[in-house]
Amino acid sequence: MKRYKVRLKMKSPIHIGFRESDPEVSEITASSDTIFSGIVNTYALLYGKEETDKLIDKFMNSDEDIPFKVSSLFPYIKDEYFLPKPIDYKFDTDNEKVDIKKISKAKYISEKVISKDLKDIKINHGFVSEEELKSAPYKIIKRPRVSIDRVTSATHIYYMRIVRYSENAGLWFFLDSNDEFDERIKAAIRLLGDEGLGGERSIGMGLFEPTFEELQEQAILTANNNGKYLLLSSLIPRNQEECNALSAYELYEKTGFIYPTFGADKKHEIYTMVKEGAILSKPVLGKLVDGTPSDFKDHRIIKYGLAYIVPFD
Fold it and tell me: Cα separation of 284 and 59, whole Å?
């Protein structure tokens, strides 16, 4: 199994919705199930339905020999890679340089400082970093759109929020890839960059250029941890034992739409998932869920909930 940091140089703005049918809301990052779905979709474009079914079968029938795993997407700024701020992270509150209000609002923390003494850190725009951030690495832009009623031809103006990353910033994620599928998965990610990630791809949203940095060491953050692990993906626990391993966590609901070849779009069921940044007392696997409706024949609908965890001191 090879491990990569996949860095996405954004070529266009991105729209990641999390409220159903509400274009005025957009996340600045995307969860692991979103990037997984994008990779599988472009894998199907490259290699066809039969090969994609074989890929999914590998996921559903084996815990040890899965084709690949992904973390969620997180921001990078220059050479600083950011992770979700751990839910139970303890800062030195006696340090006069640490602004408690800024800490509580921060969402991301740099890899460079997460396991170090935090006596000299910068907290700006929701990022805990080593270097001072003079401005946020992205802008949220409100763009007008027009919808036209197919029956009456009446027009309706609405606004869509999109996220544009600055020249020296973008998104990244961890990829663990089985040797057998390594080149195919990287090819699918490159095609995903041309197809677009997230919503509003028909108007050119979510385009990116990926680069793959292979990591020589499997351990991340700390080689020796104190029995704690940081969750870097959305997680669906497979049993009560895995639920019991959650020491500090937040839950959230994910839904989405199924796009058939013919006919109207369908909403798939709501899944309750563990959010990135959770702390676990031991490694867990998580699971994928086959949510294909009985009357849907185009392809299988898989919800990705495998755990991507790293040791955390």
Answer: 16
